[in-house]
Design a protein that fits this description.
Shape: elongated
Number of strands: 23
Helix content: under 10%
Order of helices and strands: EEEEEEEEEEEEEEEEEEEEEEE
Strand content: over 45%
Distance between the termini: 32 Å
């Protein structure tokens, strides 16, 4: 993995084989993808033009990035199936590495694969690490002054760039205060999460708690455990109230 910084973005070449599909048709198959951090939190894939298996049709849309320059928008067409506004090219970018690459809109594709494994939401960041450790620390969670969870057997998840997360056995959580939510989210490192809201008296705090019931293989240690947003509840760790961190989820 070679990393370069150009303007206000970071670029790294990945050694993974990357494929994307639309309506079951192969759109790109490359062993030379580039990871580009357009935002600080996660990268996106730019792929070589020569590795596309679909056609790009200009749609008249343009955009501008202070770091990447002017972009031309394209529809992606493969075997009669069209994904509107699904691709961008920076043909005259001030960053030479981007000029012969195509940025495919992640959500415009039906499936993405890194090697032979599906990946969701965005590419996995090679500089992010997830560690899940069993612990005997005492974790207490309060919402509006009401104790909602009390556990001495948490699994603590440490993820690069985010606060430690405390995953608790459901038997240590006041399930009578939880209300099922229809919210679902996906994480490329952990899988699909379902949510609960917390009802304290007449006040319902939406989507404060999540659970990965069938996480990806690397995160099996948190299967079936409940986690609260540190940013939105009071967490006591070994009797000491923790500061509420400021994150994109605050």
């Amino acid at each position: 993995m070679t990393e370069q910084k150009r303007g206000r973005i970071k670029i790294a070449r990945s050694a993974k084989r990357v494929r994307a599909f639309l309506a079951g048709r192969l759109v790109v198959d490359t062993v030379s993808p580039m990871l580009v951090w357009e935002v600080p939190y996660y990268p996106t894939y730019y792929v070589p033009l020569d590795d596309l298996r679909a056609k790009l049709e200009t749609n008249g849309e343009t955009s501008h990035s202070p770091s990447r320059g002017d972009a031309t928008g394209y529809d992606v067409v493969v075997d009669g199936h069209t994904a509107k506004a699904a691709a961008l090219r920076y043909v005259d970018s001030p960053i030479p590495e981007l000029r012969d690459l195509v940025r495919l809109e992640w959500n415009a594709m039906d499936e993405w694969f890194e090697e032979d494994e599906p990946v969701y939401v965005h590419p996995r960041d090679p500089y992010s690490r997830v560690d899940i450790l069993a612990s005997s620390r005492h974790v207490v969670v309060e919402v509006d002054g009401v104790r909602v969870a009390d556990s001495r057997s948490p699994r603590i998840l440490f993820e690069t760039g985010l606060p430690a997360r405390y995953y608790l056995p459901l038997v240590d959580v006041r399930m009578d205060l939880l209300r099922p939510s229809t919210t679902r989210t996906r994480c490329p490192y952990k899988g699909t999460a379902s949510y609960w809201s917390v009802a304290i008296g007449d006040v319902v705090h939406e989507d404060l708690v999540w659970c990965y019931r069938a996480p990806v293989a690397e995160s099996q240690k948190i299967a079936g455990l409940a986690c609260f947003y540190n940013e939105k509840v009071d967490i006591y760790l070994d009797g000491e109230l923790q500061d509420r961190p400021q994150t994109p989820f605050s």
